[in-house]
Write a structure and sequence with these properties.
heterodimer; A: 390 residues; alpha/beta; D-Maltodextrin-Binding Protein, domain 2; six-stranded mixed β-sheet; five-stranded mixed β-sheet; B: 194 residues; Arc Repressor Mutant, subunit A
Amino acid sequence: MTGDRLRIGFIPLVDAAALMVAVDKGFAAQQGLAVDLVREVSWSNVRDKLNIGLFDAAHLLAPVAIASSLGIGHIKVPIITPFVLGLNGNAITVSPKLYAALVDAADGDLTDPRVSARALARVIADRRRRRVEPLIFGMTFPFSTHNYQLRFWMAAGGVDPDEDVRLVVLPPPYMVESLANAQVDGFCVGAPWNSVAVDHGVGLILHFGCDVLAYAPEKSLAVRAAWANEHGEALQRLLRALDRATAFVNDPARLDEVAALLSAPDRVGVAPEMIRSTLQGRLSVAPDGSVREAKDYLLIGRDGAARPQQIHAAWLYAQMVRWGQTEPSAELLAAAKASFRPDLYVEALGTNAKAAQLPDDGVGAFTGEQFDADNIFGRAALSTLQRRQS
Amino acid sequence: MDPALKIVIVDENPLRAAILADGLAEAGYTRVIRIEKTLNLLARIYEIDPDVILIDLENPSRDVLAQMFQMSRAVRRPVAMFVDQSDAAAIEAAVDAGVSAYIVDGLKKERIKSILDLCVSRFNAFARLQEELERTRTELSERKVIDRAKGILMKVRKISEADAYALLRKTAMNENKRLGEVAQSVVTAAELLK
């Protein structure tokens, strides 16, 4: 075993847990890997440094990995996903003012995303009548599950996210401040930022991401396809280290240890209690202290969540098409699917390789037509985009 | 070289932004605007309506600019990152220096190549300046520690300043340590034994 040295970039979020634990608990070293984890401040930086080879691997938004492979929005560099670092973990948080308006407009239980989406449409219609400026929602990146989750939810209520509201990119550390000073009315972001907003009394968690999509492909372990070809053996060892790390993260007896480790300033850098509640899926959702629990709030390799699923890549590509980020093309769809590499995952983990039992549409969407990865064009998946004629 | 280009510099470090702005001014670019606060960045940029945007890589707001690639109605003029697929070295040099450039609305890449080159050299110059400053600071504080260690040795062992210095040097050489480190341990030990 050669002593390979790897540089891996990450953004300080709880769903980078497998990488942090693999390094800090010695699972990488056990596999003969010396890993330097490099904390970054933007997804653009992570992508660029991975693209030009300053990083060997990265914690990356799954849609960015796909967009990079397809050459959408940026230089084309084939990036593969041989391991999924996280499914889910996002939430939609709104200001107390917007929450109150949604309560008034709701025709049922607001925790049901169908009800909240319809309520949002009514609030928007009312604002238009009163000639009030459109609502503004923050998300983390144009190619992000956060963007697609917000849009999916809004569209289900008849809201056109490009016309009826403003969607703006905000770096996660700025989300809470922006909500507090009313620069945005709500946002969709990963842990721990929703809890931080609730803690500060400036927001209420309206939905967990898993209310909208039960199995949302969130973060990839991303590597250049060319690097994977040249360093196949090192990659296998990295995947094995990550597999051991996810088992550690999911061991209830290790919860406090993992929370303490992730709270270090050079890792995620927030209070351990916040990390523990995120990993448990037990979050304060309102300033009055009410707590909601969802066991699938964030999945870090649990029950096969780390195995790349090509239907997830197809779903993300379909969102890019749906929202006009790229053209529908059978070739691009095939390339998107091929960038998710369950074969490498299985090769590295052998009998350890598990597969999650996914719903038929792959993502467990709360509403809408059945998603079929082999037939995404000219179908309801895209035609649900019905722009309001005004 | 095109002095009519309107250039925005987004950098929360005022010193580095000033160094870059000076460089651009020297090169004849007169329409240079600096943005230090990144709150409401997109609105500020639309207000200025620049041809070129330069942003440092330590800035989380780089992702905000990614939104400008989108063809949505919220975006007035599409923007592209300066990426010359034929010239990977240029982009590597920029990322390495810690800066990235965006160009607006189909501007020819050749027109900003010189701006990017200037950025890279100014960012690198700034990094060197900071390193030097850091080194000077370390040296200064080390010298102070060495002086204190010498004083302690002179007092305790009743030797001259020159002998105290020679003793420190010899110990450093024998233990394969830096002079500053040995001096620091003398000072620490003296404090413990007080």
